[in-house]
UniProtKB/TrEMBL annotation:
Residues 12-294 form the Protein kinase domain. It comes from the Eukaryota. Signal peptide: none annotated. ATP binds at K41. Transmembrane segments: none annotated. Keywords: ATP-binding, Kinase, Nucleotide-binding, Transferase. SMART domains: S_TKc. GO terms for molecular function: ATP binding; protein kinase activity. This is Kinase-like domain-containing protein. The lineage of its organism: Eukaryota, Fungi, Dikarya, Ascomycota, Pezizomycotina.
Length: 294
């Protein structure tokens, strides 16, 4: 596919992808109006994606449109079709939290992790307030944004997002049998592994795994051997058998407090975002002052 100028504004050379997801590729382009970089996500228009509702990229665009008045989500410049592909042009951000972990030698200090926890709680609460659940919470799906006065974190990759309630009436949908995409096994909730209906508590469970991962650089269910199916089964068994106390061993008490809270949530329950935010913010302030945290 030759280089293209999208919407008479965004130049992209399709030869070198900078990233890849389950159904799409990501390229870096140039906004010819401002001479700044942009990210361009491209999805092949497969037969099963003929209906827009079946296209992950179309769904992701629709979610971003519903969030365009909110902070902490990328700006979308255009969406359309070109040469058998759906394409979405968005602001170029990064690095990701995964990049940050690698840069810092596979683990982050508590001062950084507590700040990340507060910021991601705000992002997830805002997403949930707009009646969406993310479905694939992981470090790669949060990008640092240093374009403003302060560094912020932006949530991306909403192709697996689903409505968990009616956006007009705010009535929670019942737990009905339906196809539930797994997302990323390392951070997926136990319910997602089992294919059970998911709600806000599943995003929160995945966030908990993410925060522990940022502290330790790994999780107990990493590095397993066997076929893909065997590994998925082993990951599920490990998650079920690993108690919150084991998972949070030697971590600041706020982490165990977090998992105890989400383990008590019923399917339709609203998480205590503010209470959890206050706990991690207090931890962050203590770290900044150099006070003990254990």
């Amino acid at each position: 596919m030759p280089a293209t100028v999208l919407n008479n504004r965004f130049y992209v050379d399709w030869q070198n992808a900078i990233g890849q997801g389950g159904s799409s590729e990501i390229f870096q382009g140039i906004d010819l109006f401002s001479n700044t970089g942009v990210a361009i996500k491209r999805e092949k228009m497969k037969e099963e994606y003929v209906q827009p509702c079946n296209s992950p990229l179309t769904r992701e665009f629709q979610v971003y449109q519903s969030l365009r008045e909110q902070t902490g989500f990328p700006r979308i410049y255009c969406f359309g079709e070109v040469a058998g592909y759906r394409v979405m042009v968005m602001e170029l951000l990064g690095p990701s939290l995964e990049d940050l972990v690698v840069y810092h030698g596979r683990s982050l200090g508590l001062q950084i992790v507590s700040w990340v926890a507060c910021t991601l709680l705000e992002r997830i609460e805002e997403l949930h307030e707009q009646s969406w659940i993310h479905g694939d919470i992981k470090p790669q799906n949060f990008l640092l944004d240093a374009t403003g006065d302060q560094v912020d974190i932006v949530m991306i990759d909403l192709g697996l997002a689903r409505r968990y309630r009616d956006p007009q009436t705010k009535e929670h949908y019942p737990a009905r049998a339906t196809y539930t995409p797994l997302g990323t096994p390392r951070f997926a909730s136990i319910a997602r592994h089992r294919g059970d209906p998911c709600s806000r508590r599943d995003d929160m469970e995945s966030l908990g795994y993410l925060l522990v991962y940022l502290c330790r650089g790994c999780l107990p269910w990493q590095g397993l051997d066997g076929s893909i199916d065997a590994k998925l089964e082993q990951i599920l068994v490990s998650k079920v058998r690993t108690s919150p106390q084991e998972l949070c061993h030697d971590l600041s008490p706020e982490f165990l407090q977090y998992f105890k809270h989400i383990s008590c949530l019923e399917f339709t329950d609203k998480p205590d975002y503010l209470g959890l935010w206050k706990a991690f913010d207090d931890l962050h302030q203590r770290c900044r002052r150099g006070e003990p945290h254990l």
